């Protein structure tokens, strides 16, 4: 970002920096000196009283001592600036930045959208002053900053709704396959894979599926479509099923996969490789459809809004949850599909699990209402059923209802990882924990590059705990935490698993991590029925932990 005609640039997005217009980094070494400049950079009109600044940085010191420390920091700033020291002005009452000579990155809305939203950077990253007054101020500033980022994202989505000449063009998926003379088995394999991919894409996105498999020669391809093509090759008693996704009209390959199997044994459509290939293709296709900018039919835009909402949901946090809900709502307004309501219901399940709510009763009633409406609108959508199953599992702990919905989702689409995951969790609570654990592991294995892989690992950790596979559960919980460090559920289970297995140091380290997300966490909470660790009550872990830890 260029300073233009200014003398200094103060960067507060990400780590704090002070840079001359020449590009020279002159960030002060003192952390409180940097904090002083940050206080001015984010202040109204870039000025604050000496007393206000002193209270934020030296609240634990007497007035005279705090005033002396403030003078030392100002002296450090002047030494650092040298001939440009008048960029920071001070008198007996006020300290201010020269607004004509100092530029602040957060004031540039374009840079805010381009840098903060896309790179998910934090305001004043790593600036730790250890003064409670400053920490309170910084927490408020970061919240305001996140809300600005939300506004940028919403503005970007609104701008994408401006249609062009082809504004009535929907998403299209073209299906085709090679010729397999005298090979009915190969034909079935190719068609089964294409049908499964097309069905799953249709469940998650608004798309027109154009079947060109019987067109000889193929009909002309419409512009701006995705084409899905399959072939089967035979060699040395083995068959290789290849599927490729290309972008029209350029025919550029965006994804491909090959599944090899022994001809005598045959290909089991429930094979993990087969199911994972389906989900990999679906994830890439929806990603491609969501990037469409020139064709803004309502169906196309609703898909983009929903996909953006899903990404925000799995970034976690109050601000992302708020934006995700708004994006799902707007998608439903454009195209009233049950899948968008199902995601709104699922979001509320996540908010409950993450303890991000002000009124639990309201959240629970909304989740059930959205689920019911979603099932009425799309009763044959496997993802609507599966997302609803997760809601009933978490919100009301209605394990039978969750089991029935999850099983329905799998019957509709056996490639649905969310259905397998919820079916596994429901079975764990209905007394079939070993089988349930296997189902959650299957969900994890077939999910592909979905944005919720960390959640599936977390569910595997929980199911493994119930099944008594404690060592495996620990590894799965650690994987979930590595994929999403701010996801609380696996940390809750790891605290108990580490302590139960005698790894007290790791248990205490995990407690400290969890308390950064939940400052009120204590071991006693694990035993509370209202705390989101219901599965622990189906194990002997709670009873076996030392009494002083519970």
Which structural traits does this protein have?
Serine Threonine Protein Phosphatase 5, Tetratricopeptide repeat, 11% strand, 3-stranded mixed β-sheet, 20 helices, globular, Rossmann fold, 11 strands, 5-stranded mixed β-sheet, alpha/beta, 550 residues
| Global outline | globular
Q: How many strands?
A: 11
**Helical residue percent?**
40-55%
Low-confidence stretches: 114-119, 159-167
How much is the radius of gyration in Å? 28 Å
Q: Looking across the biggest beta sheet, what order are the strands in?
A: 8-7-9-10-11
Task: Give a structural overview.
- The chain is built from 20 helices and eleven strands.
- Among the domains are: 151 residues, no CATH class; 119 residues, Rossmann fold, CATH 3.40.50; 95 residues, Serine Threonine Protein Phosphatase 5, Tetratricopeptide repeat (Alpha Horseshoe), CATH 1.25.40.10.
- The strands form three sheets. Strands 8-7-9-10-11 form a five-stranded mixed β-sheet, with helices on one face. Strands 2-1-6 form a three-stranded mixed β-sheet, covered by helices on one side.
- 54% of the residues lie in helices and 11% in strands.
Per-chain topology:
Elements: E1 8-11, E2 17-20, H1 31-41, E3 47-49, H2 50-57, H3 63-81, E4 88-90, E5 94-97, E6 102-104, H4 109-119, H5 132-160, E7 172-177, H6 184-204, E8 208-211, E9 226-235, E10 238-247, E11 252-262, H7 272-290, H8 298-313, H9 318-334, H10 338-353, H11 360-377, H12 382-394, H13 399-412, H14 417-429, H15 433-446, H16 453-467, H17 470-483, H18 488-500, H19 504-517, H20 541-544
Parallel strand pairs: 1-6, 7-8, 7-9
Antiparallel strand pairs: 1-2, 3-5, 4-5, 9-10, 10-11
Helix pairs in contact: 2-3, 4-5, 5-9, 6-7, 7-8, 8-9, 9-10, 10-11, 10-12, 11-12, 12-13, 12-14, 13-14, 14-15, 14-16, 15-16, 16-17, 16-18, 17-18, 18-19
